[in-house]
Design goal:
By secondary structure, this protein is of the alpha/beta class. It is built from eight helices and ten strands. Strands 6-7-8-3-9-10 form a six-stranded mixed beta sheet, sandwiched between helices. It has a four-stranded antiparallel beta sheet with strand order 2-1-4-5, with helices on one face. The longest helix has 16 residues. It starts with a strand and ends with a helix. The mean pLDDT is 91.
Amino acid sequence: MIECYNITKIYQVGSVENRALDNVSFKINDGEFIAIIGPSGSGKSTLMHILGCLDTPTSGKYILDKKEVSQLSENELAEIRRNKIGFVFQSFNLLSRTTVIHNVMVPLLYQKMSLLLRLEKAKKALKDTALNEEFWHYYPSQLSGGMMQRVAIARALINNPKMILADEPTGNLDSKTGEEILQTFERLNKEGHTIVLITHDKYIAAKAQRIISLKDGQVIEDEPINESKIFKAIAE
């Protein structure tokens, strides 16, 4: 599904060159559960923005579903972000003055479909995240952190995307709630979604099938979980 070849991203601040990603290459197959791990400043968020078609590399190739992303128009990129990729963020990014069910419907605003169909799709997505129906007409401020993240996951699911990009999705949650959210991702992966989980936490990364480890903008490990040095360090 994803092919990255020699991806480099450089930010120029005056005369200072910041190489956020440096010659990064890897592939992700349909249906994989991948953890991209690294400390702050390792390039994780920059890579996520490129994988999510929110940014472009300075050099190198990013191929998504056999299409080179740099060759696509803005309309084609918008369609990919809307229909092929679901985004889940640490800070939830919910609209504070909008109810749960209407937050979930946001990705459908620019699609030609009836309100009834939008509601049906939103209800299905919320059921898939196991958020109790009594909360569907609450506002985000009335929900716990775990509930808000379930709403964010439902919003990411509403167009049935092939890939879900999750950036530190448990970062604002307690350990028990975080574990429940990770179990949701595991279930979604078993249902066929490709999951790319961005994290700095090696214990969370161990939930994946494969770990790609970044440091100073470079890939220093790309191994199945049972061969990963990170996983072995946890097991010991």
